[in-house]
Amino acid sequence: MQKRWKKKDTPEATVIDHLKSSINVSKAIATLLAIRGVETYDQAFEFFRPNMDHLHDPFLMKGMEEAVTFLHEIMADGKRVMVYGDYDVDGTTSVALVYTYLSSFYENIEFYIPDRYKEGYGISKIGIDYAAENDVALMIALDCGIKANDLVQYAKEKNIEMIICDHHLPGDEVPEAYAVLDPKQHDCPYPYKELSGCGIGFKLVQAYQLRYSASNIPLHDLLDFCAISIACDIVELTGENRTLASIGLKELNTKNRIGIEALLEAADHKKEITIHDLVFVIGPRINAAGRIEHAKKAVELLTSKDNKLAKFAGKAINETNSYRKEIDREITAEALKIIEEDPDLMKAKTTVLYKSEWHKGVIGIVASRLIETHYKPTILLTESDGSLTGSARSVKGFDIYKAIHECSDLLDKFGGHKYAAGLTMQKDKFELFQKKFESVVASTILPEMLIPEIEIDLELDFNEITSNFFNLLQQFAPFGPQNRNPVFMTKGLVDNGYSRTVGAENDHLKLNLKQRKTNLKFDGIAFNMGQWEAYVKSGQPIDIAYSLEENVWNDKRSIQLVIKDIKKSENLGD
Length: 574
Known about the structure:
The protein has 20 helices and 19 strands. It is of the alpha/beta class. Among the domains are: 58-217, inorganic pyrophosphatase (n-terminal core), CATH 3.90.1640; 342-450, Diaminopimelate Epimerase, Chain A, domain 1 (Roll), CATH 3.10.310.30; 454-568, CATH 2.40.50.460. The chain has a five-stranded parallel sheet with strand order 3-2-4-5-6, sandwiched between helices. A five-stranded mixed sheet has the order 7-8-9-11-10, with helices on both faces. A five-stranded mixed β-barrel has the order 14-16-17-19-18.
């Protein structure tokens, strides 16, 4: 697939020069820091050495004083508390964190996760009815609730109060809960707005502990939950999120809790845990419980204190994830075949597909996979309770929620944000929706948005890639949105005589490249670029976009280029 390269704007020279001298780093490192908004010595210190002291005062968040005081009163009276959260990774880790903390000193407490298929996303009437039947006085709603105005009122009628801990954008009116914690409220003074749902739950716990010192659990012990949620909910890895994720990763790698150890053992994962592992190893397994069975099993595992039961549950969830992957592969293959056999779909600016047998729990994942092959706004739908329900995924820069909103006259309901959304319609509206959505997107999407973009941080010469440079680069981790693993560009490279295809189908390219102007060479790996072998071996110069990683082979460590894209070069590098 063709890709476009876009070089990030170069920061002001004065900022780069100040960083170079104040923290004694190369121009390249100073530039990378400035691109990430790090401009002073103090900001650099916080970036490279994140710790608990860098966290904001939780009482700066609107509603926190009321939330903590009321929660304390409820527990002082011995009334029942329900910790309620959504069924995805952010929701289940939020529940696990708050429940772990509160249950360490308070017994009249339970947690509740809604059934993905019977109750749907967020606070449900079924969940409120269950709470009423079980004498719950307070529901703490995590990762949901900011738009649940009617349901909050319904809970009040059942004599149930709510504390809402959410991180999604509020509507025009905030629910009349006892307290609402959401830094995205227009009048909330909290200085960091991009916390995950689990991060909001942690701020509630942090505030309670600061005020009442109720638990023997050190607060940093809970940050493994935050790290998982931050990675899997794809929130910004900046500011407070980066601090929470960094400390959480250390917790995960030093004293893993029983449930997470069980998941890693079932997945046969024995290396150091990174953000990548949270997204691709732990996250999918937690999610699989909610997609295929019930997400409460994930919370039970995350909060387990019994080794034997945790191992059993971890194995069961891993098997569920294997089943999810099998379904995922089957639907992806089926959807790709439908697209490739239909000339109209191939020419279209969108992909909108429906099949009644597709599993509701994985169509969002499949929509993302289709974009990897056919880079365009994508919606997959299946049948549920007599209607069509589906998931939408977008390409960089295009607001799919806005496009769906333009088709709202054909929908029963929809919700989401710029890059991901959910929707429901009647079966007889499918073809009308398919045509209208295509028309809306085709008239608004820019041609370049249909070509994947690679953002380039810096152009480097090979002589700048030193061990010191690489060691500092590793301290930029953890990587994620707004703090991606830096991507570099180097021009005028030629084969050094050792490049070859590798892999079962020779679809990957193992490279050894030399830059003529520096006479230095590096090994590289280019996944799914085996088609470049003949051109590279012909000796013609190429330009590459790449990241850096450490390669370990026979106990020898070296810096390796992980190549994102290759282009024919007009620069001979002389």
